[in-house]
Amino acid sequence: MKPFIKFFSSFELAISCMILGLILVFIGTLDQVNLGIHGAVEQYFYTFFVYWVMPGSAIAIPYFPGGYTIGLFLLVNLITALVVRFRYSWKKSGVLMVHIGVITLLVGELISSMMQVDSAMIIDEGTSSNFSEDRQVVELAVIDHSASTKTDRVYAFPHEMMETMQDCRHEELPFKIGFNQYMANSLIQRRDENTPSKALISNQGIGLNTFAQEIPKTGKMDDVNRTSAILTIFDDSGEVIGTWLASLGFPPQKFSFQGKDYSLEIRRKRYYYPFDIHLNDFSHDRYLGTNIPMNFSSEIELTHPERGEKREFLIYMNHPLRYNGLTFFQSGFANEDTTTILQVVSNPGRHLPYLSCALIFVGLTVQFLIGLISFAGRRQKKS
Amino acid sequence: MRRYFGLSLLALVSGALLFGGCQRASVAVYDVPKEKEAAPPSVAAAPISTPTENGRIEWTKPAAWTELAPTAFRKGNYLVEGNDGKKIEITVSSFPGAVGGTLANVNRWRGQAGLSSITNEELSQGLSEVRVDGHDGQIVNILPDSDDPDATQIVAAIFVYEGDSWFFKMLGPQQGVSVQKPTFDKFIDGLKFSDAASKRESSAASSEAPKEAILAFDAPEGWAESEGSSMRIASYEAPLEGFEPADFSITSFPGDAGGITANVNRWRQQIGLRPWSNPQVNSNQETLEVGDLNFVLFDLRPQTDSDKERVKERILAGIVKHDGKSWFYKLRGDVFLVETQRSKFRQLVQSSRFEASNSKN
Hints:
The complex is a heterodimer.
Chain A: H1 3-8, H2 11-45, E1 49-53, E2 60-65, H3 67-85, H4 93-115, E3 117-124, E4 128-144, E5 151-158, H5 159-163, E6 175-183, E7 186-190, E8 210-214, E9 228-235, E10 240-247, E11 253-257, E12 260-286, E13 293-304, E14 309-316, E15 321-323, E16 326-334, E17 339-346, H6 352-382
Antiparallel strand pairs in A: 1-2, 3-4, 3-17, 4-5, 4-12, 6-9, 7-8, 9-10, 11-12, 12-13, 13-14, 15-16, 16-17
Helix pairs in contact in A: 2-3, 3-4, 4-6
Chain B: H1 2-21, E1 28-33, H2 42-45, E2 57-58, E3 66-67, E4 76-81, E5 87-96, H3 101-112, H4 120-123, E6 127-132, E7 135-142, E8 152-161, E9 164-173, H5 174-189, E10 192-193, H6 194-199, H7 204-207, E11 214-216, E12 224-225, E13 232-238, E14 246-254, H8 259-270, H9 278-283, E15 286-290, E16 293-300, H10 305-310, E17 313-322, E18 325-334, H11 335-340, H12 342-350, E19 353-355
Antiparallel strand pairs in B: 2-10, 3-4, 4-5, 5-9, 6-7, 7-8, 8-9, 11-19, 12-13, 13-14, 14-18, 15-16, 16-17, 17-18
């Protein structure tokens, strides 16, 4: 056996991966206190390495394998072991199922980590919505208000372009957007005489009265990363049209160019759907005489014009609506119980953990029964 | 069978990885029904203060104070030296709204003086009410913790008038501030609010209000005025046969508009050059005195071989600060064409002056 295959199919590698996984889960869970859930997941689990950033510098030194590395090594180890070492026989069918179950679990988590989209749909009573907004990811939206009398044309530039400060351009737009500064999280302050001169570069819109001060990114559930950017718009000849400060939470900032009205904003990334959800009623029941919530529920009507569907649903705690590959959970409420917040989850790998658990359960049961029958047979023979 | 089983599993995992990893970020374009406009926050609606907007509260400068140029946020900017030669700063500023309220502002000033924040109850100890020209205000006296004569003391008057908060602030070493306090009190007593001032047909104070100077210069021979945007103060074309004419513009913005480095890098970005660090900006700048104006000049052109291959444009730029504003001169065009116009650009810069009336060529 070649040493390479021997290494990847070894039992020692499996045990090492499991021990490293245990340590990673332990330190990642402890660090949740500092980083929050999202921060810990990003820093320890959805990464190939856990890094230590040298204080006062941008130098990051990897010091521990991350969730992806451990998971991938374990996955390759399980598959290689099944191919190279495993002796297929009916007597070991249970063990085989358990192995396939664990592989399914790892693949499912990999798919979820890469493809799960978690967003929120906010609807006021008596109104409809056909989009949800990402909880983590932002985008730079440039909106052409002159596109037609009834609709606006949206050009949504992904956050990766802001993070890497790439020029944002589109063939239909007569200008390009360049970034002067990008801040993953910031504090918005009113301009005054102590404002750092670097922030004074904005010469249009809200940035004339405010500035953004960069602060460390947060991963805590209740905190919001207020993404900000100072951006300059250039016309086709490279002439500066103006420099704006855009920040999550700012209203769209309007400007005119070549007789057309545009606006720009940094907003949560939007996902549009081919159906509408109308909120008929939101109920928030409390235990009598207290403010402790007993139940909150949204009575909605879903309309899908292309399919000719119009259906009513009641979404409440632990009873989500599953539709079109999406799951709508009752997540929260606002505006004195007149607005509902639905968590919208799209996860192509959502069935895999169930399949994995079923395989592991059946595999263990089968293996136990095979062992039991064999034991009983041997005992009978002896007697 | 074993081989097929193994291959199937590997294909499944690789497929999952590839599918997940190949999702590239791209620009999404779609049409949406027009949304109702959200009310912009008050901060967005607030007008920017410029040095020439003062007039709703007027004041008379005490003779001993030296007037400095106003800035984007200082409507009045004065300096006085104490007996020991240490400087005391007196500023007048106004902002729309309550700007966080008295406590927030006092705590901000306490921070400036190196003191800890106080509570609402403690605030009343250093706060006194004042009535000037029929309007109520507050005087706050922020004393240092120590007896050190150089420790910072702040005396400030706050007036909320027609929706704006006005701050008259004196800051300096406590020894000097205590000497200037009677002058400052007299200065505050002499404030005139516009409703009172408007009753007087001729106000001596208003006649002293600074007038905005107009930039004048001599356009070089051969340059033709061009159609510029509304942001331009001047717009010219510098022609040369066989080339697209170079574009010359003068713009102005309040304050330092981000500073020299940010603006130089914005121009470098315009023609595709990499940004400069602060030391690079400093080492590539040339200063030019024109009367009482101090210009900083830059020649932004491709210098390395790779830049020369890639970048075909060049910018000659000049920045000058005057009257609380920054003025930007910029000539942009083909590398060779701009070279031929260098002396004319310099000649234009050297002819610049600020005049009381419009005498622009």
